[in-house]
Amino acid sequence: MKIWKGKHELVPFIGLIFLLVSAAVPSTRAADVTLTWDRSTQSTVTGYKLYYGTAPQSYATPIDASNNTTYTVNGLGSGTYYFAVTSYDSSGNQSGYSNEVSKTVTATTTVANLRVTGASAGSVSLAWDQTTDPAAVNYNLYWSTSSGSYGATYADVSPVSTTAYTVTGLTPGVTYYFAITYDTLAGESAYSNQVSKTVPTATCTYSISPASQSAASGGGAGSVSVTAPAGCAWTAASNAGWITVTSGSSGSGNGTVNYSVQANTGTSSRTGTLTVAGQTATIAQAGAPSTASADVTLAWDRSADSTVVSYKLYYGVASGTYQTSLSCGNNTSYTVTGLGAGTYYFAVTAGDSSGNESGYSNEVSRTITGCAYSISPLSQSSASAGGAGSVAVTASAGCPWTAASGVSWITITSGSGGTGNGTVNYSVDANTTSTARIGTMTIAGLTFTVTQS
After folding, report:
1. Tell me, what's the pLDDT at 313?
2. Would you list the domain boundaries of the chain?
3. Using CA atoms, how far apart are residues 402 and 413, in angstroms rounded to an integer?
4. What is the distance between the alpha carbons of residues 400 and 396, in angstroms, rounded to a whole number?
5. Residue ranges in the chain whose pLDDT is less than 50
6. Pairing of strands 279-285, 212-215
7. Which among 16, 31, 141, 269 is least surrounded, fewest beta carbons within 10 Å?
């Protein structure tokens, strides 16, 4: 065909041809359209302009293609587009339109629900919903340090049943932006929703030592060491009412958690846990003794026989059968000490100066069920200037106990031992240092703690 250029010159123009290709880096497009045309035979032609619009022979602002004979129009959404080309010379004269060609672009769907599922030093993990487009052949996962601008950095992820990917080699401390598309044979989808993630500067891993410890029935104190990279925060908490975190309930990096264990007044052992830096520390505590020794005091009437000069006390664990005899002199009472749990049978005989011995008296018995102890309170605080305090002991009748200090600055002033219920009094020396201190006393087998500022 021939088209007019200027007023007098006829310029022959060869037919316009178009090709559809998929772009390497889409924005929010369904496809790109590449067009090509024959170069004009007129030597005065210095360039070409490409026109297009969404209605036949109705074109928007032209695109200057310079002296090229091909041009790719990017970012076309759904619809039919109409194209034509003109040529121009160095004076700005422009030919009429070439033949018109059209192309219908069909939009594709996007990948849904892109999300960050995890991150560590140098990497970010992402997941998305599988596309429902049956024409999809693979995904393109893009990332950049600028929001909405992804450049040419992407990962080709296939097959389309894959819905997760970890991007590695990222710079710690930098925020990255991610979006995903999918390819079909006809082109590339628009971007999905954008997500972002700041890459962690360190991988926080934690360990504790020891992971388990034992505690005596009387209670006590212990500690757990935490090992973690610098800057990695952690917390510590008790999961049992009888275990208390006394210091180190939170920290960052390496640290120590201190705890105290209350006395177990029951006869059964028990187990409790601490959660330290996400790890479990187990504390196993023994039960209180159930068969501690007890004392039994017996008394009898003095014999009316004037020749009697002494008495013997017999006892055993079966009625009428006595394994032990004790010389009581001319006394009419005696305390048998250190008896364990069980039933004991007792009888008395009288003796003269010649060694003659009477028969057994009437028999009596006593059942010992074992000794259980408790103290109150289990701990007390003391001012730095020192002071005094007391601890009440509760025990079954006949059950003996003792009290002893475990540190030099706590002194038992009275009640260092007793039987049954009793009271232990103590004094605390002044603390002349700037550091708080903790000391203990062992009372009736239980631990009493003094904390001094």
Report:
1. 95
2. 2-105, 120-198, 207-285, 294-368, 373-452
3. 13
4. 9
5. 1-30, 291
6. parallel
7. 269
